[in-house]
Amino acid sequence: MGENVVLKFSEITKHFGGVTALNSVSFEILKGECHAVVGENGAGKTTLLNILGGDINPDTGFLELGGEHFDQLDPRKSISLGINVIHQELALIGPLSVTENILIENLEGKYPGFVKKQGKLKQAAKRIVDMLGCEIDLEELVENLSTSKKQIVEIAKALSTNPKILVMDEPTSSLTQNETENLFNIINSLKKRGISIIFVSHRLNEVKKISDRVTVIRDGNYIGTVKTEETTIDAIIRMMVGRKVELYQKRNSQEGENPVVLEVQNLTREPYFRDISFHARGGEVLSFSGLVGSGRTELAESIFGFLPAVSGEIHVFGKSCHIDSPQAAMALGIGLLPEDRKINGVIDTMVVRENTSIAVLPKLSKFGFVNKREENKLVKRFVNVLNIKTQTVEESVTNLSGGNQQKVILARWLATQVKVLIVDEPTQGVDVGAKAEIHKLLRELADQGVAVIVISSDLPEVLSISDRVLVMQVGKLTGELQSSEVSEEKIMTLATVGLNC
């Protein structure tokens, strides 16, 4: 290996049954660089990370570290070689303190069965946290921390093993813009210490900002590695998908051209939000922006009946409605794509057919029996319309990529002929190709007269798809921006005014 090369993937190949997940992939990671690895869902990124972390072994090929060849690793061996993988779903223990989580691999004292003194543990944890330039209560239970603080704990935990290579899988997916900037500062400080960062993300604007080089994988094949400063986001996208992808560009809707479908007046549910008033028209995409914790998700859940408001009014097509359950919301033509599709969206014990048709089974049933022919006809129609990539409607929904799972949930609501569709973080964790398709579908729904309400922490997405933007800050609306005047700066000003960031 070259003098600055710390890790080399050599001809890595991995099959799962008849599917080739990786096909002879080779590239290098340099010392002290942030190296982004990008590709669409199913490209092979996760398989590559699992091989590096020792969770699975390649069929052929090897890793080269420190001049040694390794054709297989296990998790402990990977860590001992200086590799630490921080997965998207953080591996922290909620009931333990920050200190205990950071030093989980190093709690045992001088004698077996005895834990080191708390004072020594706290000192060791403090040294690591100070190294990151962050303030965090070392005695606080991890389950009480915000997502960004948990991210810091996970990084500190990784640093306790003295890594040479730190792998971050979608590290910003649940972070606000300010929290992401803080993470980037940490990454830059780690680079200065000679630690190499492998940064896996679908957010190409962040890849462009933080990485030194970018490696693209498509359909299990290595496409190429480029210097970030010498390429563009459009060029990276073309490498990822093998074609030009245009994310939907917003149109300027004219206020008042379509009827008000949903109107909310002085809706309150302390401590989440208070005195919220707004309207949504058929034919428009109305976005809610703001920092995590601003009350956007809770507001959506109240409108849908998950968390009924304690005061205020909701009007649908001008008629006052009492919504105290999701069933009541659905009867009025309101649908919700939740933020966490794995917990509150797809039903992982069901197949694609069942996940799609579950909301309209009463319409497909007679005397308690489901008309299977009509059910299959309906589901196949939406699979075709939404271009859901599945082998069959009887395939388990867990086998689908994140973008296709999101389309299944969207199909569920389309089958109900919704009048108001609320989508919470619609493209979180999906690749750029699926993102473009979802944006296009949301616009098509609006063009059909549906009032589409989008909650998104992705500012480029908000700018791209919105006809109007409402901004929330600590439970209150702080402003409204028309399509022609919206900008990242204006959104962030409205989202952070009065906050100690």
- The parts where pLDDT drops under 50 for at least 5 residues are none
Helix content: 25-40%
Q: What is the CATH architecture annotation of the largest domain? A: 3-Layer(aba) Sandwich
Largest sheet: 6 strands, mixed
Distance between the termini: 44 Å
* CATH topology tier name of the largest domain: Rossmann fold
Main sheet strand line-up: 6-7-8-3-9-10
The overall pLDDT average reads 85
The top level CATH class name of the largest domain: Alpha Beta
Radius of gyration, in Å, reads 24 Å
DSSP helical segment count: 18
Structural class: alpha/beta
In terms of DSSP E residues, the strand content is 25-35%
CATH homolog superfamily of the largest domain? P-loop containing nucleotide triphosphate hydrolases
Give the beta-strand count: 22
Globally, the shape reads globular
Task: Provide structural commentary.
This protein has 501 residues and is an alpha/beta fold. The protein has two domains: 5-241, P-loop containing nucleotide triphosphate hydrolases (Rossmann fold, 3-Layer(aba) Sandwich), CATH 3.40.50.300; 260-345 and 418-496, Rossmann fold (3-Layer(aba) Sandwich). The chain has 18 helices and 22 strands. It has a six-stranded mixed β-sheet, with helices on both faces. The longest helix is centred in the middle third of the chain and has 16 residues, at 177-192. The two termini are 44 Å apart. The model has no long low-confidence stretch (mean pLDDT 85).
Give a nutshell description of this structure:
With 501 residues, the protein is an alpha/beta fold.
